[in-house]
Structure formats: C-alpha cells, structure tokens
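Following up on my earlier thread - several people asked me to post the actual chain instead of describing it. Fair enough. Here it is, all 571 residues.
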Amino acid sequence: MRPLDPRLLKYASAARGYLAAAVLFGLITTGLILAQAGLLARLLAAAATGLRLAAVAAPLAALAVVVAARAVTSYGGETTALRAAATVKSQLRRGLMAQVNRLGPAWLARQRAGEVTTLATRGLDALDSYFARYLPQLVLACLVPVAVIIRVALADWLSALIIIATIPLIPAFAILIGLHTKAQTERQWQLLARLGGHFQDIVEGLTTLKVYGRAEAQAQVISNVTDQHRRATMSTLRVAFLSALVLELAATISTALVAVEVGLRLLAGDMGYYPAILVLILTPEAYLPLRNVGAQFHASMEGATAAGEVFAILDVPVRALRGRSGMASRPALDLRGQAIRLHEVSLRYPGQERWALECVSLEIRPGERIVLTGPSGAGKTSILRLLLRFAEPSEGAIEVGGIPIDRIPLDEWRSQVSLVPQQPHLFAASIAGNIALGRPDASRQAIRRAAVLAGADEFIGELPDGYNTMLGERGLRLSSGQRQRIAIARAFCVDAPLMLLDEPTAHLDAFAWDALQSVLAGGLAGRTVVQATHEARASSAGGRLVTIADGRLTALTAGAAAPQPTLVAAR
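Reply from S.P.:
Thanks for posting it. Predicted structure:
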C-alpha cells in the first residue's frame, strides 16, 4: 500500500481539498508543538532557578493559550477529516455505481453481486479510519520530525545528531511489519467479500435449499467462512498490537539515548537548564507522529484495500463509441421508420471459447414482429443483448437506417427501446411507480392504459390500495405471473418504438397468453417487436418466425401479417 494512493485524488475530488486542509492543520499543529515546548521549557527552567510566579505569568498565560489552540486544531482537523471521508465515500459509491452501469449486465454477470454490494457498503465505510486517523498522522509524520530536528539542532547539535541517527529505525520497522499486515488485511477483506456473497446467495436461494434439504449444509458453509474471517481478523489485530510494541520500544530506546547524554552533560555543567529541558520535551515529539502513523496504518488498511478494489473496477476500460466525429451529420434516430440490419454478426463473450452467435444476418423492419425461437442456449437472448447494446459484436456490424449502431449514443438508443426480461425485477415501491419506472412523468391514466394492455388492471384493482399498493422487495407480494404482467405494463408505458421480450409468457396462464399475443399481433401502434420464446406457437398471431440453433439462424417462416425477409443468411 502506498502512503497516499494517487487514484484517490483522481476519483474523489473531495480528497484533494481535504489533503490541503490536512497539510494546513499539520503546519499549525507543528508550530503549536514547538511553541508549547519552548514555553514549557522556559517555565521549568525558571522554576529550577527559583524565579517568582509574577516573573513567569506571561509565559504561563501564553502556554494556556497554546494548549487551548492545540485542542481546537485537533477538533477542527478530525471534524474536517470525517466530513471529507463522508464526501469521498459518497463520490466513490456514485462513481462505482456509474461504472457498473457503464460496464453493463454482461460484466456484472461475471461478478459476485454479494462482493460488489459488500464493497460499496461495509468496505468503503472503513475509509473513516483512513481519513480521520491515518492521513492526519501521515502529514504530521512528514512535518513534525523535520521541524523538531531543526529546533533541537539550534539548541544542541549533538542531540539533533542522535535523533537523526535513530529516527529511521521507526519507519524501517513500520515498513517491514506493514508488508506482512498488507497480506493479512487483503485476506481478511477477501473473506469478508466471500462471506457477503455466500450470504446473499443463500438468502435468495433459500426456497430451493429447503426443498432439497441443503439449507443446513449451506449454513455450515457460512459458519466456516465466518470462522475463517474471524481468524484472519484476529491475526491482523495480533500483528497490529505487536507492531505497536515494536515501534514504542524503538522510540523509547531512542529517546533514552538522548536523555542520557543530556543528563550527563547537565550534571557536568556543560549544558544549561533551558536547552536541556527543551531537548527532553521535543525529543519524544519527533518520534510520536512516526509511531502513530505506523499504528494507524493498520486501522486504515481495510478501507484502503476496499478503495483499491473500487479503483480496480473504475479502471476497467469501457468500450467507447466509435465514429463520434460523424455524429453531428447523421439523421435523428427514429426506430418507427428506420430498419435495423445485422450484417454477418458473430458474438463471443469474454472468457468463452464457444461462439454465442455465428454469422447472423437479419433485417428487422419498422413495425414488424419477429419471434425468435429455439432451444435454451441457442442464442436468442444474445440477439436481444446486442439490440440492447449490453454486448457488442465480436465480428460483423449492426446498422440502423444505414448508420452504424456504435455511432449512436447509448442514452439516445435506449430511449427508444423497452424490455421485458424473463425474470423481471420489481422494486420496493408502489405498483404505479414500478410501471412508470422508465417514464417517471407518466400520468395515472397512461399507467392504467399500460396495465390494461398487459392484462394487469384487473388484479391490481382487487388489491387494497390499487395502484398505490406498495410492493415488498423484488415484488414478492405478487405471484410470478402477476410480476410478469407488471413488467410487461412497464414496457408498454414507455411507448418505445422497439420492444424486446425475453420469454414474456413464461409465467402466464393460457388466457393471459392468448390476451398478450392478441396485443402483440396488433403491432402495438406501429412498434417493432422482437420476442424470444421457446414456444413456436407464438408466431400464430402473426409475424416472422426465426429459428435459431447453436448460434445460427437455421429457418425462417413468414407469418400472415409479415412479408418475406429481404436479408437472412447463416454460416
């Protein structure tokens, strides 16, 4: 771990202002330390020579002011540090969520959601110690020893030489111990993240675990990981306590060397009271910040390690849009009148050897309905991901109205696309709020119209609070079929020209299935519909049936309401 990670200044602007404030507080504290030592030495020297109280009244009052100023400075520094920590944590959390959003579901699917959640919550919370304790001591460790050595040298050059010779021992010991502590803390953090991931998996899959009698076994897994985390934590604390002992011992021996030589010269009459007392007061101050920064290093390691994990995610390259220079001259995007063409598109996901799609060529005309059918893993969802731009073609190209799709900004593209996933996510909000998720300004009339189209209005009306009914986490108050209809209503409410449906009828009964197919067959007021399903009968309501197997288009059948395709090829 570096003393100050430059990526912290890059990704958290609040850290820059705080670092400047920490340096300022450090300079003030350094000046107050020197002033306090000088005043206290003057008072003790005066007491040793028998001066009256009236003669030292002014230095005594000044000392009281300096002590009060140190207390105020300490309070101000810690308050500033905690506020900076809160701001930096907020900035990093926002940056992390924005980066996850940019990387998209394809990247997130390769991560453990529990670990990302732990990182954004408990992990970043540990930055409080980093800002409130470690960084202030780091600044003081850079300023105070230099100032003390200079002031001691002016009073007694021999004592200054001893301090200069012994002071490197403390950072040397701190570095050696810190290398060991870093490995211990990283292991502790990895176990904590693993614990969070396991716990989330068990909570989400508890029903399945109970059915198959594996709940107790998984509880034992949690117990084992918890015990490993406990042992790693205790090991880290043990090293921290031992490091404090080593640093204290080194500082004590170094201070004793100065005290012995000063005492001997004082007894011999070669040194006055004032410089001797001044050196004895300032010598511990030279070692104290270095001891403290070594001790606080361990307290800050968890937060610094978590921040490093966040920086690793923030540094993941996001594939930028190409051809941006030509964006100003391209026509406005309007999927109600522009065709989407896939030209020899192949897709391979990162880390996979198998092609998800191979040489797929397909034209999707405005207002057309296409039904993608085939077995699981055939590539139906991969085509939807390409159209959602959650993935980009490994080979080939996608054009919209003759314009490469990667020249269209993501926000503009997705504003004209709606999705009904196979397992829709409902949020802990009202039913109306869930339906209007993609269109927050939608009127209650528009929300109800979307629910009617999706066949959800009837069961919503039977709920105690109707559209104001609050759903629990993931909408568990509703049945799977009801949740699916809410998701379909959400897509209808957006009124996007292109609607993508991934197994939308998987949880619907026969009546609801027929009702939905009737709505889709009507074209939904000129919308383009691409539906992925296992059920080939979905094409009976009209549209084009596209069969996919092993990532290739193998068959194409035109429905009654759709003309024959003009461009379809397969390798």
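Confidence is low (pLDDT under 50) at residues 320-328, 560-571. That should answer part of your original question.
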